[in-house]
Design goal:
It is built from 3 helices and 4 strands. The chain has 238 residues and is α+β, with helices and mostly antiparallel strands. Keywords: Cell cycle, Cell division, Centromere, Chromosome, Coiled coil, Kinetochore, Mitosis, Nucleus.
Length: 238
């Protein structure tokens, strides 16, 4: 068959080959498209399944996170409540410590004042004791001298007995004595014994009960003994 050739155009055979090649390519493309579509659908189904699983996992995880958040929020609330209680306890403890410190300070101040008062009192007592010791020492010396000079001593029982020596010039060791008793209820002195007897002992005793001057009474009685001793000595001389 004679081929009609058109300048610049393909031959019928060449066109057929080209169409066959194109058809083959289209078929191949279609198969690839179907294969790609199946793959895409398979991947989509896989992704949907995976996404669902992941969604469920994320949902469960979110639920767990929410529960953990609630637990942590409650724990945080308990923590801050405990912190607040701790602050209140610390504040209360500080108040008690401050009150205790103040009480201790007050007691120490009272103790110091008491010690100062005791120190002052002890100083006064010490001064009085020193003064009294001085007076007692002076009195002891005076009494010792008085006893030595006048020869006087005392004996005590129900009555007080005054014994004198150094009265009789002829016999300095001779004893002159008298005993008196004090009735506390009546606040009155009475003569129990007088050796040798003194005529004026009665008036002297009355004077003692009026004035309560025992030392004056003792000196007066000794003078009466001295007078009596000198009178007796004068009688003996004559």
């Amino acid at each position: 068959m004679t081929e009609d050739l058109v300048p610049g155009s393909l031959s019928q055979e060449a066109l057929k080959e080209e169409l066959d090649a194109l058809t083959g390519n289209i078929r191949s493309w279609g198969l690839e498209y179907v294969d790609d579509g199946e793959k895409t659908q398979s991947l989509a189904m896989h992704f949907r399944g995976t996404a669902k699983e992941k969604g469920e996992e994320l949902k469960d995880h979110l639920t767990d996170l929410q529960a953990e958040y609630v637990r942590l929020e409650a724990a945080l609330g308990d923590h801050w409540a405990a912190v607040e209680r701790g602050r209140e306890s610390i504040a209360e403890q500080r108040k008690r410590e401050a009150a205790r410190t103040e009480l201790i300070s007050q007691r120490l101040e009272i103790k110091r004042r008491g010690e100062d008062k005791v120190s002052i009192a002890m100083a006064e007592i010490s001064g009085k004791l020193d003064h009294r010791k001085q007076k007692l020492e002076a009195l002891r010396k005076a009494t010792s001298w008085y006893k030595e000079l006048l020869g006087i001593r005392c004996e005590y029982s129900n009555a007080v007995k005054f014994i004198f020596t150094n009265i009789d010039p002829a016999n300095p060791e001779r004893e002159f004595s008298f005993s008196i008793h004090h009735d506390k209820a009546a606040n009155k002195f009475s003569m129990v014994d007088c050796d040798p007897p003194i005529e004026r002992s009665g008036p002297l005793l009355d004077s003692l009960n009026s004035s309560n001057e025992l030392s004056q009474f003792v000196r007066s009685m000794r003078w009466e003994f001295v007078s009596l001793a000198w009178e007796n000595q004068g009688d003996e001389s004559s």
